[in-house]
Structures are given as C-alpha cells and as structure tokens.
Amino acid sequence: MSPRRSYDQYCSAARALDAVGDRWTLLIVRELLAGPRRYTDLHADLPGVSTDVLASRLKDMERDGLTTRRRMPPPSAAQVYELTARGSGLLPVLQALGEWGAPLLADRRPTDALRAHWFALPLLRALAGFGEGTVQVRLEEGEFHVRLGTADGPVYGEGPAPEGPDAHLVLDTGTCTALAQGGLDLLDAVRTGRVTVTGDTPLAKALQEPR
Fold it and tell me: Comparing C-alpha atoms, which of 142, 113, 115, 146 is closest to residue 128?
C-alpha cells in the first residue's frame, strides 16, 4: 500500500484532496455510486487506467474509509467493492464538479470514451423535483437507470433497472449533453420531442405534463 501523500496544510480543502485528489479516485467513486462492482467491471468502465493504478487506488480508498470489500453470496461468490457512507457522501461533490465541467463537453474528441451511465449524474440534477421513483434511460450507447428520492443505497445503475421503472426516457447523446450543460430544460426537451417519456405513474405524468 502506498504511503499517504499530504499537502500538510491545516485546511479542509487540502485534507479532502489528500484523500480524493489522486488521479482516478473520484472516477472510481463515480462508478461505485452505481452500487457494488467487481474489479473487472471497474477496470472495463475506467478506460485508460492501468491494473496496477486501479489496484493501488482501491487500496488507498479502503484505507481512507471511502470503500470496503465484501464477497457476494453464492452462487456468485465474487469479491466486490462498494462505497462506505463517507464515500457515498461524495455524490454532491461529483455533481458540482460535473456541473462546473459541463461546458467542456462542447466538443467530443475522437479519443474520448463514452459510457451511457456517465450521464446519470447530470440527469439526476435535471430530474430533481419531479417526484420519487426509478427512471430507465436509453441512449444510443446503452441503458442505465436513476433512482430519485433514495435516502441511501445506489443512486443509479448501469443497464435496465432490476425492478419495474416508474418512467422510461429515450433521448440521444446530444440532448443529454445539452441537459448537462444547462442550456436545455428537461420539460422543454420533452415538449419538443427531443426526449420521449413513457409510463403511467405519477412520476411519468409529471415528466409529461407542462407545469
């Protein structure tokens, strides 16, 4: 395990960066906000990270109380990593960082990787205030789901929701990017057909009806 590096400053921002300022750490948190993940799943959804660096970061995060490991019950019996309550407390930090960085999404570079569930954080912000429930989202790149109004546990997940979703959203990556950048309102996107909403639950109706 690598020794802890520190800015050696009596400042809360500096102390926070001691724990999460290393390259890849916050992106590992982003992945684990979707729930427990196996090492191989984390490596697949963090293109560009080496196996040595990922293993080192996970050890550091466990040491710092951000993650924990456990073994899934049979028949899986796989070892998974998951966030502690302190690690999950980084959700608003990542949302604020994503909001600040959204203008930088103006141009997608040819080398940029993309996973559909990376849009979960900005969509959580766009869906705030519409009610509670699970929203299934489909993009060209794949599907993910977000959970609104959850007090604890994963706030989003890759792939279809394990339970029946309260609403289905279909949109393209360009629309997702515009929502993330704040230049497009979700209800306006629904009215103009850039987002298709289906479902007959209160949450789906709130997304379909003008305010």
Answer: 146
> Any idea what the Cα angle at residue 124 is, between residues 122 and 130, rounded to 5°?
130
Q: Is residue 35 over pLDDT 80? A: yes
Q: Is the pLDDT of residue 151 over 90?
A: no
Beta bridge partners of 147: 134
Which tokens go with 115? 């996973």
Q: What gap in Å lies between CA 113 and CA 109, rounded to an integer?
A: 9
Query: Structure tokens of 132?
Result: 């509670």
Q: Exposed, middle or buried: residue 2 (CB in 10 Å: 0-12, 13-18, 19+)?
A: exposed
Contact between residue 57 and residue 24 where contact means Cβ atoms under 8 Å apart: yes
Task: Residue 98: name the closest of 168, 15, 33, 194 by CA.
Answer: 33
Is the CB of residue 87 less than 8 Å from the CB of residue 67? yes
Three-class SS state of 18: helix
Nearest to residue 47, comparing CAs of 100, 1, 114?
114
Q: How far is CA 84 from CA 1, 33, 54, 143, in A?
A: 19, 10, 18, 26
Name the residue with tokens 């003008």. 210
User: Taking 90 as the threshold, does the pLDDT of residue 48 lie above it?
Assistant: yes
Q: How far apart are CA 164 and CA 167, in angstroms?
A: 9
What does the alpha-carbon distance between residue 120 and residue 116 come to, in Å, rounded to a whole number? 8
